[in-house]
């Protein structure tokens, strides 16, 4: 643990604040869970719990209301339990939704509430002003020169009223760099806080962002100099209250241990579900302990990151090893029964019984035990959960900015299998063999997820399982769909009803209305090629015929208009404009047209020998790419699949016509096609002499 240090501002000896803030939106934890948390904190060497559940009535929305005798009794018990475990219980209140800072009655009400909690045995407090409206009411505007002045005045007054507690935390409204205008060092708000907040009050800070990917020493030095004190990090790295599909069970990470001497403390605001926070809190504790070995000659060799496979590793802390330590301890929790009536361990003699007409065995509670006979179904059994299962669970639900390694591999492999699906069905080439072998590995990974799911479902500790259930069920469905799709690509099964149907069951498309909204927004997940609401159209691809020229021209013109903020004439000319514009005809058998119920909605055209066309446009072709392709889709085609099928078919046709490499030209404004070719995987950017500015060439060998 970090050594206690003397505060420059107050001369008080301060221990490094470490622990948990229950500061998320949604259902607060139960008193039993909190009490268990204190025991864990004690065991793991953490020393603080900040009580700040956003949706606890009397913490925020009804902050003025005093606790009833029943509530008081529970809080007293909680505060006592914290003390018993050496955990500092900090009571936080969030009056910012509607307090009038300049009204003395309001300040008196706040003091009365905190006095009540003080009477419960609590001696550490916190005022939170996060996530509130920054516009002051007219009365406050009259009384204070800024919002920061209003908050600081009330906070100082309450702090003094409570007798300047040893621990008193203030959460600013601009609690991360992203909220500061224009930036941290020039933020008038933070400067006011730094200069006017009494020195005994510590300030909470979430880092560069609300959910910070990295927190660097430099960023902390910068904010500390403005705040005139080292902040306490309120870390949202494991918070999941903003997305019901995510939960984080990766290790505490991307905060160098060099930060520890620069900070007043770290409190993690983790997942809303209590049990899955085992990893978040255990690894934070390991991180906090890591500093203990510094300079003292007793560095914890087990925990040092050196020689680890983690890039830029910390000499004092290895997230990977911290994770293994946490999961090893967590496994024991999973295996301990938490509810009466759980499965009884099977008596091995029962399993040996051959015939069902023997007398049923009696257990110690007298229930008959069913023993299947020789022709009966064997009993369902799931093997006990293993450390590998928990490792996989953590990797599938890792961190907000990072999937775990198995998750990354599965995504990469699925992407590759999709991009190279033309390999299947060819004569047995090397590529086909590679495709099949990678598909097999993908399948093994999918099966490991299902096995983990079964073993988790059978784990004796039901409370942990229930907290995880929705998430593991969700990932199981996602993996089931992906697996079925790969099998179908490999010709091992007919197109799966769930993957391909135009009328999927509710569980075949996920995410509800919110998911649909998101998929329709332009910034939706940068991995996505096109926005694709549920498929409603049936597409067909057929060979191009000269009668299609007019429709193709229309699409070509329309796309040019969309691409150009300026009139079409201002766009740099592409060699393929001639093909799409009808001046050039595609080579025989090298044109395809996409149709939906409204008619032609896309085209893919190729010239096997583009030398002459290139010369006309003052380009010099790169030697290995003599052929030109161009593809365009009407904006109403929101599903990426037909586009991929069409370009795949065109490339096959061109190869059959003798081409060994194709290229395409794209204007930089045509992001959609640029993304499309980039994500196919096989196309790369080419150097080509004579390309106009703002035009890129991409190509692939055939
Ligand atoms: C926030 C909220 C917090 C919430 C978190 C993650 C702070 C200081 N406040 O902004 O209550 O749980 O985001 O959604 O972080």
From TrEMBL:
Listed EC numbers: 3.2.1.169
Superkingdom field: Eukaryota
MF-aspect GO terms: [protein]-3-O-(N-acetyl-D-glucosaminyl)-L-serine/L-threonine O-N-acetyl-alpha-D-glucosaminase activity; beta-N-acetylglucosaminidase activity
Reactions accelerated catalytically: 3-O-(N-acetyl-beta-D-glucosaminyl)-L-seryl-[protein] + H2O = N-acetyl-D-glucosamine + L-seryl-[protein]; 3-O-(N-acetyl-beta-D-glucosaminyl)-L-threonyl-[protein] + H2O = L-threonyl-[protein] + N-acetyl-D-glucosamine
Enzyme class: hydrolase
GO terms for biological process, alphabetical: glycoprotein metabolic process
InterPro entries named among the record's database cross-references: GH, Glycosyl_Hydrolase_84, O-GlcNAcase_cat
GH84 domain: residues covered: 16-292
Pfam hit, one: NAGidase
Keywords per UniProt: Glycosidase, Hydrolase
Region of interest: Disordered: 292-314, 336-364
Protein name: protein O-GlcNAcase
């Amino acid at each position: 643990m970090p050594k206690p240090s003397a505060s420059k501002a107050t001369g008080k000896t301060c221990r490094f604040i470490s622990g948990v803030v229950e500061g998320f939106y949604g259902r607060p934890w139960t008193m039993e869970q909190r009490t268990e948390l204190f025991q864990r904190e004690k065991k793991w060497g953490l020393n603080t719990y900040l009580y700040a559940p956003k949706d606890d009535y009397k913490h925020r929305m009804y902050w003025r209301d005093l606790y009833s005798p029943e509530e008081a009794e529970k809080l007293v018990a909680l505060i006592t339990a914290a003390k018993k475990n050496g955990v500092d219980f900090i009571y936080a209140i969030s009056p910012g939704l509607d307090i009038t800072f300049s009204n003395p009655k309001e300040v008196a009400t706040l003091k009365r509430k905190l006095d009540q909690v003080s009477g419960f045995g609590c001696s550490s407090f916190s005022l939170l002003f996060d996530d509130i409206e920054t516009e002051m009411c007219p009365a406050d505007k009259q009384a204070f020169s800024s919002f920061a002045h209003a908050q600081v005045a009330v906070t100082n007054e309450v702090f003094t009223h409570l007798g300047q507690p040893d621990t008193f935390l203030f959460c600013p409204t601009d609690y991360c760099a992203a909220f500061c205008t224009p930036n941290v060092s020039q933020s008038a708000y933070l400067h006011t806080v730094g200069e006017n907040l009494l020195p005994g009050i510590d300030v909470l800070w979430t880092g560069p962002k609300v959910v910070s990917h990295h927190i660097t020493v430099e960023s902390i030095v910068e904010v500390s100099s403005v705040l005139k004190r080292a902040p306490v990090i309120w870390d949202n790295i494991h918070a999941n209250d903003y997305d019901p599909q995510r939960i984080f069970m990766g290790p505490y990470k991307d905060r160098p241990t060099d930060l520890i001497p620069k900070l007043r403390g770290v409190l993690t605001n983790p997942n809303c579900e209590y049990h899955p926070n085992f990893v978040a809190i255990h690894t934070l504790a390991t991180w906090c302990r890591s500093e203990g070995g510094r300079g003292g000659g007793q560095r914890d060799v087990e925990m040092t990151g050196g020689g680890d496979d983690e890039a830029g590793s910390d000499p004092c802390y290895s997230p990977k090893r911290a994770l293994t330590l946490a999961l090893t301890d967590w496994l024991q929790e999973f295996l301990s029964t938490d509810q009466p009536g759980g499965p009884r361990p099977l008596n091995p003699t029962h399993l040996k019984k051959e015939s069902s007409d023997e007398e049923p065995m009696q257990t110690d509670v007298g229930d008959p035990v069913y023993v299947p006979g020789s022709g009966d179904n064997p009993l369902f059994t799931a093997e006990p959960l293993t450390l590998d299962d928990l490792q996989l669970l953590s990797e599938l639900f890792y961190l907000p900015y990072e999937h775990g390694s198995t998750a990354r591999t599965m995504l990469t492999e699925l992407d590759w299998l999709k991009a190279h699906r033309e390999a299947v069905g060819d004569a047995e080439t090397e590529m086909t063999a590679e495709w099949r072998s990678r598909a097999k590995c993908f399948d093994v990974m999918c099966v490991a997820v299902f096995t983990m799911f079964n073993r988790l479902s059978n784990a004796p500790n039901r409370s942990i399982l229930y907290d995880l259930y929705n998430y593991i069920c969700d990932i199981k469905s996602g993996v089931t769909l992906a697996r079925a799709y790969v099998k179908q690509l490999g010709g091992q099964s007919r197109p799966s009803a769930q993957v391909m149907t135009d009328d999927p069951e509710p569980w075949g498309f996920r995410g509800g209305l919110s998911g649909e909204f998101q998929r329709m927004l332009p910034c939706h997940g940068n991995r996505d090629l096109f926005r694709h609401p549920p498929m409603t159209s049936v597409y067909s691809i057929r060979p191009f015929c000269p009668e299609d020229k007019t429709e193709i021209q229309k699409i070509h013109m329309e796309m040019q208009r969309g691409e150009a903020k300026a009139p079409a004439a201002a766009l740099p000319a592409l060699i393929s404009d001639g093909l799409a514009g009808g001046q050039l005809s595609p080579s025989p058998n090298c044109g395809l047209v996409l149709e939906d119920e409204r008619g032609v909605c896309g085209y893919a055209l190729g010239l096997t020998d583009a030398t002459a066309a290139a010369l006309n446009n003052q380009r010099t072709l790169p030697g290995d790419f003599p052929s030109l392709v161009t593809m365009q889709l009407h904006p109403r085609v929101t599903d990426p699949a037909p586009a991929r099928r069409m370009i795949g078919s065109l490339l096959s046709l061109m190869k059959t016509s003798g081409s060994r490499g194709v290229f395409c030209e794209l204007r930089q404004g045509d992001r959609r096609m640029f993304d499309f070719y980039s994500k196919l995987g096989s196309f790369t950017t080419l150097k080509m002499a004579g390309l106009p500015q703002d035009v890129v060439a991409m190509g692939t060998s055939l």
